[in-house]
Design a protein that fits this description.
This protein is mainly α and 45 residues long. Helices cover 71% and strands 0% of the residues.
Length: 45
Amino acid sequence: MRGAIRDTLILAKLIQMEESVLLVKKHLPESFEEFLDMGLIKDGI
């Protein structure tokens, strides 16, 4: 039973990571120049 719970938690985390990557990908600018124009600082947002 313990293995099933662990597997479920791992699967849930993988799904969350996939959703996060898709969200970031959806909102990335089209070009590097557009990215630079966003004015983000180097060490974080």
